[in-house]
């Protein structure tokens, strides 16, 4: 079991973010006898997944919906699948956009290098 500080450090986010995720019902940490938050390995796996969703531009509202569906149980599997498939399509679009931007930048950089020599 890990404290909020240990968890934040391992995941690479702030304790404020962990508290925010708890407030938004994205994660539900355990509590010890003193009422302090405790996180286990399953929390760490979930948080790493949430961070990846966030890093790939999934809106927090969709992450909250996904988390809510997970808590509802197995009967929400199809809806969760749909959310993830839609996000994957979004990521593929981002990749295409980034690839096109990279090609444009490479062209511009080559032109400047040729001009500056």
From TrEMBL:
Provide the alphabetized UniProt keywords: DNA-binding
Task: Please state what the protein is called.
Answer: MerR family transcriptional regulator
Q: Please give the InterPro entries that the UniProt record associates with this protein.
A: DNA-bd_dom_put_sf, MerR-type_HTH_dom, MerR_fam
Source domain of life is Bacteria
- Indicate whether Transferase appears among the record's keywords: no
Domain HTH merR-type: from-to ranges = 1-69
Q: Does the keyword DNA-binding apply?
A: yes
What the entry lists under PANTHER family is as follows:
REDOX-CYCLING DRUG-SENSING TRANSCRIPTIONAL ACTIVATOR SOXR, TRANSCRIPTIONAL REGULATOR, MERR FAMILY
């Amino acid at each position: 079991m890990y404290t909020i500080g240990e968890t934040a450090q391992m995941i690479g986010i702030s304790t404020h973010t962990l508290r925010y995720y708890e407030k938004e019902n994205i994660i539900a940490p355990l509590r010890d006898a003193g009422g302090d938050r405790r996180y286990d390995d399953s929390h760490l796996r979930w948080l790493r997944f949430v961070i990846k969703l966030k890093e790939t531009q999934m809106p927090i509202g969709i992450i909250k919906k996904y988390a809510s569906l997970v808590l509802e149980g197995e009967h929400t599997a199809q809806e969760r699948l749909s959310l993830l498939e839609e996000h994957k399509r979004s990521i593929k679009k981002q990749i295409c956009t980034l690839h096109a931007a990279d090609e444009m930048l490479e062209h511009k950089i080559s032109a400047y290098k040729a001009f500056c020599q």
